[in-house]
Amino acid sequence: MGLSFHYSGSFNPVASLSGMIEEVKDIVEIYKWKYFIFDNTFPPGSFGSADYSDDIYGICFTPPGCETVDLCFLSNGKMSNVSHLKFFGNSQNEDYQKYLYMLSVKTQYAGIEIHKLIIQLFKYLDGKYLKDLHVNDEGHYWETGDEMLLTETFKKYTDLIDNFTSSLEIFPILPGESYEEYFRRLMNQIHSKKTKK
Fold first, then answer.
1. Closest CA to 80 of 90, 88, 72
2. Which of 126, 140, 113, 112 is nearest to 6 (CA)?
3. How confident is the chain (197 residues) per 10-residue block, as mean pLDDT?
4. For the whole prediction, is pTM greater than 0.85?
5. Contacts of 119 (CB under 8 A, 6+ apart)
6. Cβ–Cβ contacts within 10 Å for residue 63, how many?
7. Is-contact 42 67, C-beta < 8 A?
């Protein structure tokens, strides 16, 4: 739970991976964010292939309060990351295979300014280093650039989380109660309050 953005795409085969890594590294060092660099050169002739190796190419970084942002690729040039390669890379299940190339970052606890910075970084990288980039920003900042809308959306998510946390404190699970019993009791409580209104 928490505001996130989701993305997929590929590396532009005519761009320089080492150039992108160097630019991203310079930016994250300014903000003193932790980062990790993977391989910086794709193997020759690997782009566009359905096959890929077990290697990761690119850079990832972690702003404070934020999940790790992966600007990482498989040898075929498609965006992925270490955990997705491990969990979905060798899957025979087609439903699981599609997750190999779908990445997400939760920014809820990092705040609005970091969310904006990351989205602006993606916009900068999109034309220069990335190809077929698709971003689904739950804060709608990617699509609109509207800071007011982003602020309102962050507030909605924060209120939702706060309300859920308060509910757990006000209506705690009882000793020995299973989660199924707890949620049944909670839903009965919610239903009885609605019928009294």
1. 72
2. 140
3. 88 96 97 97 85 92 96 94 84 79 91 94 95 95 92 74 57 81 76 60
4. no
5. 5, 135, 137, 139, 141, 142
6. 22
7. no
